[in-house]
Amino acid sequence: MFKILVVEDDKNLRKLIVTCLRKNDYMPFEATNGEEALEVLDTTYIDLIISDIMMPKMDGYELTKTLREAHYNIPILLVTAKSAFEDKKEGFLLGADDYMVKPINIDEMILRIQVLLRRAKLTNEKKIQIDDFCLDYDQLLVTKKEKIYQLTQKEFYLLYKLLSTPNVIFTRQELIEEIWGLENESEFRTIDVHIKRIREKLQDVDNFEIATIRGIGYKGIVNSKG
Q1: Which of 18, 74, 82, 163 could form a disulfide with 220 if both were Cys (CB 3.0 to 4.6 A apart)?
Q2: For residue 208, which phi and psi values (nearest 5 degrees)?
Q3: Is 88 left (phi over 0), alpha (psi -120 to 50) or beta?
Q4: Cα dihedral across residues 89, 94, 96, 99: positive or negative
Q5: What is the pLDDT of residues 131-180, one digit of tens each?
């Protein structure tokens, strides 16, 4: 079930959107401003954000800017009374994915949500996302929230292999052939050394673990909060 965060200071509108989301089999979360939204994101994996723009403490523009600067790629749908092109332009330039003007049509909103989630899935096909931890295959990028971890190319491929099919045991021979190639003569100890380095570099990451299967190889175990 997709988790959607509704950031809206108008109580009635927020409740209307939340009710509609539940009826369409989404799991809604609520916040009344950008600061509260960030608190929710600190503890919960969210698939999509619906946010008003004009809000106290932290508005929708600032929320969008903050999330994009922190490398969050969550789809963001801005909902606002501002209908001028310049207002829309500002939202898109800050990183919003879509824009709706109040009064909103709830049925149209659901359609837009479906499109955004489908687009996000296509974009993330070569990414492994475990709550706030992400492996981006195209960029060889490892991140947790705004923190970037530096892995070598082989370390990245090895971790990606283990986490792309969690709970599957891979022998050292399989991993050597997959990462180093069939003709490579690297010893099995090469795998052990790389696993040790991955564990050391990501020792503060609790989203997964790499389990050693004695005498055989390794498997990835996902510890998702969502």
Answers
A1: 163
A2: -155, 170
A3: alpha
A4: negative
A5: 899 999 888 999 998 899 999 999 999 999 999 888 999 999 889 888 88
Helix and strand numbers, DSSP H then E, in the chain = 8, 12
Burial class (CB in 10 A: 0-12, 13-18, 19+), 37: buried
Per the omega criterion (within 30 degrees of 0), is the bond before 103 cis?
yes
Locus of tokens 């673990």 = 209
Amino acid at 207: N
Whether 219 and 162 have beta carbons less than 8 Å apart is answered as yes
Per DSSP, the three-state class of 62 is helix
- Helices 153-164, 189-201: axis angle to 10 degrees equals 90
Residue 85 tokens, joined: 């092109």
To 10 degrees, the CA torsion angle through 21, 70, 94, 79? 20
